[in-house]
Amino acid sequence: MLSNIDYSELPRALQHMMERDQTATKPLPRRSFLKLAGATGLALGAFPHIAMAEAAGSGKAAGALKPTQQPSAFVQIAGNGEVMVTINRLEFGQGVHTALPMILAEELDADWSLVRSRHGTNDAAYVDPLFGIHLTGGSHSIKNSFAQYRELGARARAMLIGAAAARWKVNVATLRTQAGTVLGPDGRKLGYGELAAAAMAQPVPEKITLKDPKDFRIIGRPTPRLDARAKSSGLQDFGIDMRLPGQLTAVVARPPVFGARLASVDDSAARAVKGVKAVLRVPLDGGAEGIAVVADGYWQATQGRDALKLNWDTAKVEKVDSERQLAQYRELAGRPGPHKFDADMAPLATAPLQLDAEFVFPYLAHAAMEPLNCTVALTEGGAELWVGSQCAGLDAGAAARVLNLKPEQVTVNVQMAGGGFGRRFSSTSDTVVEACEIAKAAHAAGLNAPVRTLWSREDDMRGGFYRPMHLHRARIGFDERGNVLAWDHVIVGQSITTGSVFEQFQVKNGIDGTATEGMRDPYPLPMRLTVHHPKLNVPVLWWRSVGSTHTAFVMETLLDEIARATEQDPVAYRMRMFGDKHARHRDALQLAVDESGYGKTRLAEGRAWGVAVHESFDSVVAYVVEASVKDGRPVLHRVTAGVHCNLAVNPRTVEAQVQGAAVTGLSMCLPGSAITLRDGVVEQSNFDGYTVARITDIPEFDVHIVPSAEPPTGMGEPGLPPLAPAFANAIARLTDKPLRQLPFKIESKS
Amino acid sequence: MKLVVNDREVTIDADPAMPLLWALRDVIGLTGTKFGCGAAQCGACTVHMDGEAIRSCITPISDAEGKKLTTIDAATDGTDRIGAAVHAAWVKHDVAQCGYCQSGQIMSAIALLKSLPAGQQPTADKIDEAMAGNICRCGTYARIRTAVADAARTLA
């Protein structure tokens, strides 16, 4: 997902993208608002046809409102009162499919039992209202759409009230609403379903009054997910489950080394496989090429792929080797480079206590459970795509370029996705571009059918777009009280955003902000931070919590080490550094401490406490953990979380997100959680070689949320960063040896 | 080739070596069973064959011929008491996040509870052992533990 965004520079930097995006989408009929045909339920997509002039929002009343502010694209009410809310994000586990409808339903005063939810498209209405592009990332969905969805609900409610007032010929001021019903002063009432058609004719109000948060009855209440039943019965469809009439499935034979091209192809045996319809040479991401096998189904396609005889020309491409890469990074770390922070390092020479440390972090694959896929149907006037996309607008633009279409000729139907962790938004739209290249080639080969391109687990795991490998080095001078006098720090790692749409406002002075987020702050440390971004051909990408996946580990373990070296309590040491500032950090940490029994409870024999706190994506998470070492292997027993995300829209989801992010943080610690390359070839290909946490690795969890009425901040990612350092700090207390590598490597006691 | 899926006999024209997963998904159209790894590493494709949890991604349909096959679709449709209890517990505890692995998780949980003598409650270790073959990248494991134990209690 995305890193923290520098808001001050955002509008200028994104302006051209916004303009492109606005024109790149096909507007929905704006005034089809609220009405759905059919008395028995929702007839999705049954929009009455409205002239485009009105559709673009040039109608009198709604003229000043942007597409993101028009209720028509977001709320539909059926005759039976069912309310369908369209979400402007990708649901891939984080719970926006429930939380966004909760926010809208609150101000709509809907009957929550009648609220439903669905995904949107690349329509201009579904851009992030602050960023101006379609985007699910950076834990921003709730944060950026909280006000938007409240206002949408309030506008729709005002129109329903207006319709009731017209029906009853009374003043709107005499009416109120309650759980999906408009109530008149004389006891008369009308359900929203009965008013939906008439409400359509009402002007969309620009000015609306929002509820006082103390009157919230949906927001803040632990609420079961709207998709819980479908996801507990096999009924939930994901992108991979697309089944269009006549649809074919494609798999791709990919080069063994990133960027390689084909030297020779013998596809005669592949073409002879029963069910194989076409064998196509296609361009792939990063200048590579591959062979797509298109067949009746996935298994037939893989049979065809296995029968291919291919020779690859790898002579001209870079062949990254993890061992050599680490040596290169170490050499690079000793060179001068640009500074992110530039404190005076003179006190290092005279500091009474010194600490030198080197940290190594490997490449990591996202390894979402649903393998990457994209279904493409070429139509008379354009193309239609079905894909679990974090960036529907950018993906549509990329598809249009491949298919020689205008952007408005491409519709991206966002599909429920089986995880993603950042992989469903790549800067080159690699998955979508590849699927479109295949659809185009299949069409040229005479196949007139929709094509679903599906990645195998091996394709997915060996396909790059990893969390980059990083080397950190620190030299710290401090005194006997733990006061840091000078902290000289170096980070070496590939830049994620260079070459992406975010480069222009993320890369400054040659430093990618996503590599340094989470460094130093909020601690008042005199730090010099030097950054090197080597260029390698291994594609890299944001990965749940981005830079904080490594910076939080480095910061929180080093500070713990200073506390240990100066015999200070790690909680008290951090609290002293926060001083009277950083109230959210203090409150989150104190809550975790209080609820865990830290400092009061006597731990079981062989266990130690570990503590870490970290802010990412505007939310703060603190962990107090209990861990031990069993047979030389670190074991995590119990995790107590203190969370500060301001107002928790759905506390039940916040708890789930913290548990889930912590599990991913735990995964990073487990032996085998690394992607490595040997002579250009990725060495892992499935879950047997790439370790992820299983149920047997999981501790007990207690998640506690600091009460707050402030506008909410996101929780998709912030639970991840502090888990690994809290775990490492507990282990270091038991072994007296700091852990400076992920996954953990415990040296046997000499 | 004839398969008995969810008490229904289905005749399909497919290579006997085709994994059951792809016969279910691409040929029969039962997409509730998920593809995760293709190598019996993640458990997303778990179905029941003669009541036992198997990985359909590595089971050729020739091995499934003549056996009683049950997928998530029938296991949670309310007709099976244990399946209904597990489904209800999954909903009650809001286990799913992305939900993609949950078909396989639920099929493993049902197989565990069916394997126990009537009324016997699984220990925490027994639950972990039975569910260890199912990966969830969202990290729903804590709620899976709670849901399995709760489903077992409701069946006692």
How much is the radius of gyration of chain A in Å? 27 Å
Spatial strand arrangement across the major sheet of chain B: 2-1-5-3-4
Query: Per the principal axes of the C-alpha atoms, what is the gross shape of chain B?
Result: globular
The end-to-end distance of chain A, rounded to whole angstroms, is: 42 Å
How many helices of chain B? The count is 7
Query: What is the assigned CATH homologous superfamily of the largest domain in chain B?
Result: [2Fe-2S]-binding domain
Q: What's the end-to-end separation of chain B, in Å?
A: 40 Å
Pfam families (chain B): Fer2 (PF00111), Fer2_2 (PF01799)
Domain 2Fe-2S ferredoxin-type (chain B): 1-75
Protein name (chain B): (2Fe-2S)-binding protein
Keywords (chain B): 2Fe-2S, Iron, Iron-sulfur, Metal-binding, Oxidoreductase
Describe the overall structure.
The complex is a heterodimer of chains A (750) and B (156). By secondary structure, chain A is α+β, with helices and mostly antiparallel strands. In chain A, 28% of the residues lie in helices and 22% in strands. Chain A has 3 domains: 7-232, Aldehyde Oxidoreductase, domain 4 (2-Layer Sandwich), CATH 3.30.365; 243-316 and 372-454, Aldehyde oxidase/xanthine dehydrogenase, molybdopterin binding domain (Aldehyde Oxidoreductase, domain 4, 2-Layer Sandwich); 334-363 and 465-735, 2-Layer Sandwich (Aldehyde Oxidoreductase, domain 4), CATH 3.30.365. A 7-stranded mixed beta sheet of chain A has the order 10-11-8-18-15-16-17, sandwiched between helices. The longest helix of chain A has 28 residues, at 141-168. With 156 residues, chain B is of the alpha+beta class. In chain B, 42% of the residues lie in helices and 12% in strands. Chain B has helices at 20-28, 61-64, 72-75, 81-92, 102-115, 124-131, 141-155; strands at residues 2-5, 8-11, 46-49, 52-55, 68-70. In chain B, strands 2-1-5-3-4 form a 5-stranded mixed beta sheet. In chain B, a hairpin with a 2-residue loop joins strand 1 (2-5) and strand 2 (8-11). In chain B, helix 4 (81-92) packs across helix 5 (102-115). The model of chain B has no long low-confidence stretch (mean pLDDT 97). The interface between A and B is large, with 63 and 57 residues. Chain A: It holds the Pfam family MoCoBD_2. Chain A: This is Xanthine dehydrogenase family protein molybdopterin-binding subunit. Chain A: InterPro entries: Ald_Oxase/Xan_DH_a/b, AldOxase/xan_DH_MoCoBD1, AldOxase/xan_DH_MoCoBD2, AldOxase/xan_DH_Mopterin-bd_sf, N-heterocyclic_Hydroxylase, OxRdtase_Mopterin-bd_su_IorB, TAT_signal, TAT_signal_bac_arc.
